[in-house]
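Problem 12. The chain below contains 364 residues. Write out its predicted structure in C-alpha cell notation.
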Amino acid sequence: MELGYNKKLIFEDGSEYYGYAFGDEGEKICEIVFNTSPVGYQEIVSDPSYTYQAVVMAYPLIGNYGIAADDFETETPTIGALIVRDYNDLPSNFRSMMTLSQVMKKYFIPGITGVDTRKLVRTIRDKGSRPVLITAADTPKEKGMELLKNYTAPRDAVSRVSTREKRYYICENAKYNVVAVDCGMKGNIPKSLVKRGCNVTAVPWNITADEVEKMNPDGIFLSNGPGDPTDVQPVIDLVRSLKGKYPIFGICLGHQVLSLAYGAKTYKLKFGHRGGNHPVKNLADGKIEITSQNHSYAVDSQSLKDTPLQVTHVNILDGTVEGVECAADMAFSVQYHPESCPGPQDSSYLFDKFIAIMEAQKNA
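Solution.
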C-alpha cells in the first residue's frame, strides 16, 4: 500500500483497487456497475434505481459543481456507493448548497476516489457486474474475499424505495388523472406529467387493482426502479388485471414489468446499460434517439413472439429490446428514460404519446 491510501475495493477473485475515502467511511458490499454520463452525478446518486449498487463513474471529474437543492431525484438517496477517478470537494456553482461528500455522509453512502476507473470499467465489461467490498485500506484481502463469498444479494430493493402512502403532484387546470405505481420513481417523471396537464397520484408498488380502479384514473404509469423485475410480482399482477382497461405507460422497470405481464421473459445483462449516450432506433420512423439509460435487466426478444406486444424500439449497440406496444390495449413502454434530467431530450415525445392516448380514450 502506497501514497497514504485509506480505502479500497476487494473482489472475490482477490483483485484490489486502492484509493481515498470521501462521503461515508463505512464498509459495505454492493453490486458494482458503471455509468458513462459526463454530467448528472447528483441525479445518479439520488436515483432509486441504484439501490444496493456501487456506481463507477467513467467520466473522471466528479463533484465540481456541487449539489443543488432542486436537482434531487428522490428525497432519500439509496445508492450503495460511488467510485470516481478525481473527486472535487471545492465546487464552483452559484446553485450549489453543499458538497457531494456532505450529501453522501448524510445518507451513509461511502465513496472512494483516486481509483483507476478506466481499468475498473474495462474489468466490469469483461467480467460483468458482480459484488464488491468497499472497505478500509488495511482490511486483509482474505477477510474481504470471505465476506464476498458468503454474501447474498438482497431482493427487497423496490419495497425499500417505494412510497409507503399516496403522494400527490397537482397540476393547475388538470385535464387528466394519472396513477403512478411507484417502484422507485425518479422525481422528474411526475414533473414531466404535471407540465402536460396531469394530476399524478403516486401509489405503493403493492397496491391492488381494485384500489386503483376506485381512483378512476385516466391512465396508469409504471415507474422505473431497482432490482430484478420478477421480484415485483404484485406489480405484474396489477398490470395483468388492468391492461386493456386503461392507457398504460411504463419506463425502465415499468417496461420490464409490462412485458412480463403479457407473458414475455426477462434476463440479466452482463453489465447493463447506464449513461446518457445510448443510441436507440425507433422502428416506426427509422430515427435514432440518443437516450439515457439505467438498467441491469432486458426483455427477451424471442419470448415476445408469443405475446401481442410489438417491438417498437431497439438498441443500436447490442440489439436489445428498448420499447414494446400493444396498441389494442393502449399499453406501451420503453426501457430508457425520456424524462432524463440532465440528459438527451430526443424521447420526450413519449409523454405526449401517453397524453394523446388518454385524450382519445376520454373522447371514445
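Discussion. The first strand starts at residue 7 and ends at 11. Students who got a different answer should revisit the alignment rule from Section 12.3.
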